[in-house]
Amino acid sequence: MTETPISRLSINADRLMSRLAALSEVGDTGDGGVCRLALTDADRDGRDLVVSWMRDLGLRVDIDGIGNVTGTWPADSTEDPVMTGSHIDTVRTGGRYDGNYGVLAGLEVIETVIESGIEIGRPLAVAFFTDEEGARFAPDMLGSLVYVGGLPLEVALDTVAIDGAILGDDLERIGYRGPLPCPARPPAAFVEVHVEQGPVLEAEGFTIGAVTGVQGILWRELTITGQSNHAGTTPMSMRHDAGFAAASLASTVRSIATEIGGAQVGTVGRIDLQPNLVNVVAAKATMTVDLRNTDAELLAEAERRLDAAIAELAHTEGVKITSRELARFAPVDFDPAVIDLVEHVAIARSCSVRRLPSGAGHDAQMLARVCPTAMVFVPSVGGISHNPAEHTSPTDLEAGANVLLDVMLNLATEHTT
Ligand code: HGY
Ligand code: MN
Ligand code: MN
């Protein structure tokens, strides 16, 4: 690739930080974090705030049938834009940067370009996608999956939340069931900036991550049906204890991850017991298993070991175990030319940069199905995320947004002068 031109522009870091602070007040959990589970009132309020900023900037605001929102500039443009974006829904113990940073850095990039008056070859767009987290309505990246045609809209609208709500009803209720058809016309290119949510960049002293791809993800919901019985009178040999079975499988998930090793991770994030009482052998357990690996073959091996453990435990404990798939995404490789561009821009801006895969799922992994796509990471302090303590320094947030600015300008223009 020839010398990568960089603009003489820089984003307005104070404006970015003040928008991040303002958005963090929506769904503020009082401990530094935010809770804006998808399609709740807090999500609606966050959406309304970001849409108001898009409109104030004169962007064309488009909303599609699954509630994905895109702000495009110039508003009257018809060409395929260079797009950025991420999500503003959060997990229940969300931090203020996961997703939010990518959306607001994108908005900041567009505002900087508008202020500068420079000529660009393609329109620019910033989007936030519905239900990226998948924590309330599985799978994760649901909105961007529909956006790229990976899940039919009608099927997505029928998704049932962990609290029993129907996705289409909630979308209607918060006023974000938009008119634009799904799947969307693909953008010319897509670049997402995101906090790493892991320990690598900070531990190795890098400011920028040129993300090479996203690891494979498998989510299962297991329902274990045993027999409730008296905790005091029931001999151990007579028990069909759903609580024991759930705990045993949670331990097995940990063993699978440590025995396969390398990039393999395994998580049991949710266990609900019924009747969930101190003196009753649990009749029923509902639990989730999250398995991930950058290597598709090893992820398949982890799944095989889980299934073998489920069969064995159903037999030995005398319980019935059914399994429902919540998410299955193969590992994704990003576009080599865009990854190169991220790296070149970072170097041109004197930022230390290294390549790495993403451990977390992202909307970019869905956009990669339809256009040249890559991601920019900035360090997470202590590698912490999905936790109110999630933090990235303002200096690193600014550096990531400036890298995003130049990557987008390079993609939108032959040369940026
Ligand atoms: O699950 C994930 O990796 C993302 O946070 N949705
Ligand atoms: Mn995220
Ligand atoms: Mn997340």
Give a written overview of the molecule:
The protein has 417 residues and is of the alpha+beta class. The protein folds into two domains: 5-215 and 331-414, Zn peptidases (Aminopeptidase, 3-Layer(aba) Sandwich); 219-325, Alpha-Beta Plaits (2-Layer Sandwich), CATH 3.30.70. 35% of the residues lie in helices and 21% in strands. It is built from twelve helices and 16 strands. The chain has helices spanning 13-24, 41-56, 100-116, 142-147, 153-157, 167-173, 200-204, 242-260, 296-317, 336-348, 364-367, 394-412, and strands at residues 60-63, 69-73, 82-86, 124-128, 189-195, 208-214, 216-225, 229-230, 265-267, 271-274, 280-281, 284-293, 320-329, 332-333, 353-358, 373-378. The strands form three sheets. Strands 1, 2, 3, 4, 5, 6, 14, 15 and 16 form a nine-stranded mixed beta sheet that branches. Helix 3 (100-116) links the parallel strand 3 (82-86) and strand 4 (124-128). Helix 3 (100-116) packs across helix 12, helix 8 packs antiparallel against helix 9 and helix 10 crosses helix 12. The chain is globular. The mean pLDDT is 96. Bound molecules: (2S)-amino(hydroxy)ethanoic acid (HGY) and manganese (II) ion (2 copies).
